[in-house]
Each structure stands twice: as C-alpha cells, then as structure tokens.
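so i finally got all the pieces together for this one. its two components total, 442 residues if u count the protein bits. some of the lines might not be protein, just check the labels. i wanna see the whole assembly predicted at once instead of chain by chain like last time, that was a mess tbh
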Amino acid sequence: MAMSDERDPSLSSLYCLGASEEPPATLDARILAAARRELVTVPVRQRPAWFGWLAPMGVAATVVLSISVILVAERDQPDLLPAVAPVAAPVAAPVAAPPMPELRAPPAQAERSAALPTPEPTLAKKRGASPALPLAKPTAPVSGEGRMREEVAPAAEQGLRAIAPPAPAPAGAAAAPAAALSAARPAAPAAKLELQRADSALRSPEIWLEDIRRLKNQGQLDALREQLAAFRRAYPDYPLPVDLQGP
Amino acid sequence: MAEPASDEALMLAYQAGQATAFDALYGRWRSRLFRYLRHQCGDAAVAEELYQDIWLRVIGARKNYEVAAKFSTWLFRIAHNRLVDHWRAMGRQAQEVLASYDDHDEDCPNGLCIDPAASPDQLPERLLERRDLAEQLVAAIGALPAAQREVFLLVEEGEMTLEEIANATGTGRETVKSRLRYALAKLRAELKEWQ
C-alpha cells in the first residue's frame, strides 16, 4: 500500500469507519449518461498513420516546387539574355535594316534594332513586352528602361563608326528592300515566305541558310539575294556554303 | 483468474469507445472522490456540484487523454484545481482556506500516536465506542487547515504517495510530507483529548 511509512493505520481504519458518504444515485446516473452521450456525439476518429505527415509533406512539396520554378526561371533566362549580351559583338556588321523588320528579328538583330531607331514601332512594342529583350521605341523613352537604352545606343553607334564601313544604310533605306521584296512576290507565297522568315529569324544561322537554299531551289532569286544579303549583314563572319556562294 | 484492468487501461478503453470501461472506472473512484470533496467542502450540495463537474471534465478530456501519470493522480489533480477555483470564486470566505496552502512548514509537534495494538477490539460495546470515535475523527478532519486536510484525504481516499500528492497539488514533496505529519498529529491529539 502506498504511504505505508506515513499513514497511521489506526487513524486510517477509524477514518474508514467514519467516512461513509456516497454520491447520490441520481448524480451517478447523470454522470454515466453524460459519459455515454459523449461516445455517441463525439466519437474519437482514428486518424490514419499518414495523416500526421500531411502538413510536413505539404510544406516540403511547396518548397520543392518553389525551388524548381526558380531553377527553371534561372535556366531559361540565359536564353533570353543573349539578346542584350552581344551588344558589342554585332556592331561589326554593317548597319542596315533587319531582314524582316516587321517580324521578329534574331536576338542580335533585335539588339541592333534597339540601339538604332527603326521605323517599325510594332517590333519595339512586341519586344518591349519582355523585360529580357529591352528595345528602344522610336519616340523618346521616359522609363528607366528607355534611359538605359539611350545610354547603350550611342555607345553602339560609336562602335559602328570605328569598326564598320563608313556608310551605314539609313533607316528609311533599310526598309526598302523588304518592301520591294514583298511587292515583287504574289500574295500567298509572300505570306508563306514571311512565315518562313519569321521562323528563320528565330532560328540559328544554319536553319536560316536552309531557308535561303530553299528559296534558291524554288527559283526565287530576288528573295534569295535579299536573304543572303541580310544573312551576311547579320552574320558577316559565318562561312557561306559553297552552293550559296555563287551569284 | 484474469487480473483486473488498471485504471489507465480502462480510461484508454473508454477513449476508444467502450462505455462499460468508464462504468468500471467510475465505480472504482466515485466514493473516494466524493468523500474527498465532501470533507474538503463541508457543504454536501457544493460537493455534489463539484463532483459532477469533475467527472464531466474527465469525460471531456477523453479525446486527449494520455497516460502520463496514474489515473488517480490525474483525477485528484483535476479535483484539486476545481476546488481551488471554487474557493477563489467564493472570494473572502475562501481566503482562510487558501492561506492554509501557504503555511510554512514547521517541525511537527509532538504527535500523539495511537498504538495499533491498542485499537478497539471487536466487542459490540467497543464497536459502538469506536464508531463514535470515527465520527469524532471526521469532525476533526473537517477542522484541519485545508491544505493539511487535503493531504490526509489524498492519502486515505486516493491512496497516493507523497510524490503523487505533490504532483497532483503542485507542491513539493517535503511540503506534502510536512502537511501530512501536521494533520496526523492534530488528529491524534483530538482523538486523545476526546478519549
């Protein structure tokens, strides 16, 4: 028995004799009824074992997803940033109108378009939507992004004067060959070619050359010459295939 | 013969949904808890009210019950806390009661020990005398300071050790021991005087 060393056995037995109070039967019934009511109204649900892991797993999944999104964004960004990075590289090319200024230009061309005022504001607007490809609008920019382009553009022009041939084509003249090319072709093939140009503009030089070769095979000599000229302007150091080096 | 289930096992069975387990548990402790409250309160009506409230708390705690201590320790801790709340709610009338819990320990005065060998024999005339003595003891218990009375009742009704009482009442073991020695000494003195 507990407290054997502290209890007084005689007092304990005397207490047991004297203390005989009992709770009323009605109280017993009330309590027992409450106990049974508790079982009916609030049954204890046995949670499955995995339930305890639900919150930690949710947090872990959120963290993994967030990190994945960040990594993907960081990986994709270099694909967009080269449009800004090669600012100094393409300045060696003679400044002229991009091959298809009304459509998307390759990143290098886009940057040149950004550095020099172009007569096609639609292109600038399209590129302006992407922060990774900042382009200057023909009108005076007021945003911070525009101010940055203003600082970049004179530097690019200075580089052009130092490296490139001294007679860059004016902007107005740059659009002329494209307009002439468009007028020379029938409407349907022209639209098709425009699409091809758009595609080639986004593709590598190899794919662009494939398109040019296709023009040659189709006998579209004017377009061929135009595309070759544009290609040389965009990639002056890129070796042309033998079959495209001829007249 | 199978050993009866422990109080803790019965409470866990009730937690799992066995109403009969609670019936058995209630049967074990109903009288003890009621007497503890009855002697601590003095008022039968208040004791019944507290008694019901304590059991309802036990029932309400079913979902979160864990075996962290003996069931009796847990039960009488609820009872102790409920009693303290009751006394606080009584305001000034309870100040004396609550003050008894703050008494400093003292050396136990010379206690008057009742020799077990000298306990009343089983003769009928002696039994009647003994019953009178038991009533006097109950009256003496009621005259004890609340803190000492509580320790005595927890020993007798709860069959708790000093450590369990200390755990249930939130006091130190030595304090409990001192209170118990005080209580026993006073009760012995009362009985000797009456004899």
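Residues 54-80 of chain A form the longest helix (27 residues).
The CA atoms of residues 118 and 171 of chain A lie 6 Å apart.
anyway lmk what u think
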